[in-house]
Amino acid sequence: MFKKIISIFIASVLLVTCFAGCENDEEETYLACAVSEMPRYFDPQVVSSTGEKIVAVNVFDGLFKLDENGEVQKCAVKDYKISADGLTYTFYLKNDMKYYISDEVKDFLEDIEKTVEGKVTANDFVFGIKRAVMPETNSPDFPLLSIIKNATKVHNGEVQVDELGIRAVDEYTLEITLEKKKADFLYALTQPVSFPCDEEFFNLTNGRYGLDEEYIISNGSFYLSDIKDGESVRFSKVSEYTGNYKALPTSVRLYVNSNEVDIAKKVDDKTYDLGFFVSEKAVDELGRKVQKKNLENITTALVFNMRKENLQNVKLRTGLVSSIDKSAITENSVNNLVPSYYNLSGDKVDGLSYNIEKSRKNMISAFEELKIDKLTVDILCTAEYEQMAKSIVSNWQANIGVELNGTITVADEDEYMSKIRNGEFDMAIYNLTVDSDKSVDFLSMFKTGNENNASGYSSEEYDRIVDDLSMTSTKEKALYCESYLLKNAVVLPLTYENTIFAVAKGTTGVYSAGDSSNIYFYKGQK
């Protein structure tokens, strides 16, 4: 089921207890984590999948790090100040930070007869952030840095990267200037997109930076130590680490595993120590040995494919939406698009209501504009949502006063995902969720060009609204942004789903800071 795939992409993170390699060393701790797909990139400026980001936040130290409560804490900085107007940030870095040069990296450098100094300085953060902003890097998390002065202009190729609002004042002092004041800007500096990159080493890799363990050097409490293609990735403790987040585990291995039912059994018998689940079947496999917590972070919705010419007509979409009585489709129907996990619960959003008269009026007008006298529309879904799709079609048949033929395509998970990726659908019952706990990231899914924008929706006005929300995030702006999508019938929220977070008895220290990609292992213990 599609819900399982999405949840594991964003939140299938679990620890596995492994036996120590040396029985006489009781202090050694080997942990493991299951991820749904094999990490392919280890360059923090380009990582995108959950597994890739998990590696990055553990093997690199950014300027800041998130704690157990999702609060921003100092990491590579020893102090910082913000100008009175809130635009200029000055960071004073620690002067004892070093990159770990693994044996694999040493072999690579020996082969090309080169060396690197290995100090972490302000220039490394400047180079890393400049790379993330440059258009050729195509960084998925560029929006986190778009608030920096001239970042959007650099990203669009309008000005040179040297005009970006970032500079090294001296070896251990960094200055960043913003376009506008942004209260939560420091959060961006906890994420991989803003991590340091040694320019000298980057150039020595000749385009291979971050593609394998010998082509990456990092400054965190772990280093990338082993990659088994298609199977697993391991990062290991750095004994020489001088920062504030010294690793307790000897190593952590990420295993590729997307079978929730199997994972649940292993959480129950303590083979795995921690997991995120959506599948009720999988959760049923969990016994009484685990602690469970529900996170309402998924919206099951009817999404329109805006690549289809007829469905670009807003009157047609609003006519279809207004004819649907959601209370007859699911007993847990919802009005808001953004679920409570993203901090908008309790505030009703102004959208389209069930109204047969308005529906028929809009449909007639749409048919006239499109110069058609009949129309067939299909709903793509997995077997789990077939009954929901049938109920929607029944609403259309009963309530729409034009010749509309509603059909349903039920696909297995692989076929479903293929059709979604290729835009081969009219409408789909789709699960919306993101690797974040911020409403702006959830709403950005419908921004032009967003990789999670299954609808293909493109609107300059909506892009402007989301960009404004990103610059200055308020509840009022978020609700307006949400209302814009609903009134324009881009998406129809149907119900919410929970991600269930389960932890086996005996596992401590490993924590998730807000979402599944911010998983920190340095305090992990058994």
Query: What gross morphology would you assign?
Result: globular
- CATH topology of the largest domain, by name, is Dipeptide-binding Protein, domain 1
Number of strands: 19
Round the Cα radius of gyration to an integer and report it: 25 Å
Mean of pLDDT: 88
Q: What is the annotated CATH architecture of the largest domain?
A: Alpha-Beta Complex
Q: SS-based structural class? A: alpha+beta
Main sheet record: 6 strands, mixed
By CATH reckoning, the class of the largest domain would read Alpha Beta
Q: Report how far the terminal alpha carbons are from each other.
A: 33 Å
- For CATH, the homologous superfamily of the largest domain is named as Dipeptide-binding Protein, Domain 1
- Numbering strands along the chain, what is their spatial order in the largest sheet? 12-17-13-16-14-15
Secondary structure tally, helices: 16
Q: Report helical residue fraction.
A: 25-40%
Low-confidence stretches: 1-25
Our count of domains comes out at: 2
Please sum up the structure shown.
By secondary structure, this protein is of the alpha+beta class.
Fold and architecture overview:
The protein is an alpha+beta fold. The two termini are 33 Å apart. It contains 16 helices and 19 strands. It has helices spanning 2-11, 50-59, 103-111, 122-133, 151-155, 185-188, 199-204, 260-268, 280-284, 314-322, 356-370, 386-399, 413-422, 439-443, 460-471, 475-487; strands at residues 15-18, 30-35, 64-66, 72-74, 77-82, 88-93, 166-170, 173-177, 222-228, 232-237, 251-256, 274-277, 290-304, 375-381, 404-410, 427-432, 491-504, 511-512, 519-520. α15 (460-471) runs antiparallel to α16. It folds into 2 domains: 2-261 and 505-520, Dipeptide-binding Protein, domain 1, CATH 3.90.76.10; 297-499, Dipeptide-binding Protein, Domain 3 (Dipeptide-binding Protein, domain 3, Roll).
